[in-house]
Amino acid sequence: MTPLSAEKRLAREGALDARARAHAGGAGAARQAAGHVLEAMNAARACGTVSAYLAIRSEIDAMPLMLALSGLRIPVALPVIVGRGQPLGFRLWTPGAPLDPGPFGTSVPRDGAEVEPDILIVPMLAFDARCHRLGYGGGFYDRTIARLRSRGPVHAFGLAYAGQQMPRLPVEATDMQLDAVVTENGVIRPEQLADEALPG
Ligand SMILES: Nc1nc2c(c(=O)[nH]1)N(C=O)[C@@H](CNc1ccc(C(=O)N[C@@H](CCC(=O)O)C(=O)O)cc1)CN2
Ligand SMILES: Nc1ncnc2c1ncn2[C@@H]1O[C@H](COP(=O)(O)OP(=O)(O)OP(=O)(O)O)[C@@H](O)[C@H]1O
């Protein structure tokens, strides 16, 4: 294990605790965040298919957003684990669509068509002011964002509780920066830190 992955593992422990505390605050945050995602999409002129997620553990619920998008006739997709070390696949979802159990407590639409999303709504353990993200460590979203960005423009918006912000996350070369992180308090765009251009 490299020192950086050990650092990430430590950060994950603190992040799980902070997220669980934020989650105990109730369902209002998920509804507020959903409204801010729609604002962020409008501001970025982002349109097309939106991939979201079915929350596991203490992730902020994306369902209010998914229902709002469906109501606006915007196509919604859900991630599918294709294999270890592989980018995620995506299947179309509609409210009430039958689901099959997937790995790690996830659920996937049973018979949704496979699609390529234009907008990714990304769950996480933690984020920082530069919109770097810490996930569960599978590297699934990093590989997925890298692949989609290599093919064309894609918007990657993190969705999180404001309480999931951390001072500064450890960053590996493969870690993708998000275009924004949306919380119940609004939209956070990546902050350019003064020392970012310096080596080390
Ligand atoms: N709601 C949701 N759906 C999602 C993701 C996600 O983060 N959240 N994913 C984002 O990639 C993918 C699923 N990937 C996941 C990868 C690991 C774990 C997880 O719980 N890992 C365990 C370690 C398990 C093990 O190593 O055996 C852990 O963190 O304790 C969960 C989801 C696709 N769907
Ligand atoms: N595009 C990529 N190509 C090759 N390896 C990658 C890529 N992206 C990430 N990885 C590797 O995957 C492993 C896990 O990455 P990381 O710790 O960033 O996962 P994560 O972002 O927390 O997980 P997830 O995205 O699944 O929630 C790391 O060893 C990382 O180097």
How would you describe what is shown here?
It catalyses: (6S)-5-formyl-5,6,7,8-tetrahydrofolate + ATP = (6R)-5,10-methenyltetrahydrofolate + ADP + phosphate. Pfam families: 5-FTHF_cyc-lig (PF01812). This is 5-formyltetrahydrofolate cyclo-ligase. Its cofactor is Mg(2+). One of its GO terms (molecular function) is 5-formyltetrahydrofolate cyclo-ligase activity. The protein has a single domain, classed as NagB/RpiA/CoA transferase-like (Rossmann fold, 3-Layer(aba) Sandwich), CATH 3.40.50.10420. The longest helix is centred in the first third of the chain and has 21 residues, at 3-23. It has four helices and eleven strands; from the N terminus they run ααβαβββββββαβββ. The radius of gyration is 16 Å and the shape is globular. A hairpin with a 5-residue loop joins strand 7 (126-127) and strand 8 (133-134). The protein starts with a helix and ends in a 12-residue tail after the last strand. Strands 3-2-1-6-9-10-11 form a seven-stranded mixed beta sheet, with helices on both faces. By secondary structure, the chain is α/β, with parallel strands linked by helices. Ligand FFO binds at residues 53-56, 59, 79, 81, 88, 104, 106, 123, 135-136, 138, 140-141.
Structural class: alpha/beta
Specify the helix fraction band.
25-40%
How many structural domains can be distinguished in the coordinates? 1
Q: What percentage of amino acids are in beta strands?
A: 15-25%
Roughly how many Å apart are the termini? 20 Å
- Write down the CATH topology: Rossmann fold
List bound small molecules: the ligand Nc1nc2c(c(=O)[nH]1)N(C=O)[C@@H](CNc1ccc(C(=O)N[C@@H](CCC(=O)O)C(=O)O)cc1)CN2, adenosine-5'-triphosphate
Helix segment tally: 4
Largest sheet: 7 strands, mixed
The rounded Rg comes to 16 Å
Mean pLDDT: 95
Family: Belongs to the 5-formyltetrahydrofolate cyclo-ligase family.
Binding site for ATP: 8-12, 133-141
Keywords: ATP-binding, Ligase, Magnesium, Metal-binding, Nucleotide-binding
Protein name: 5-formyltetrahydrofolate cyclo-ligase
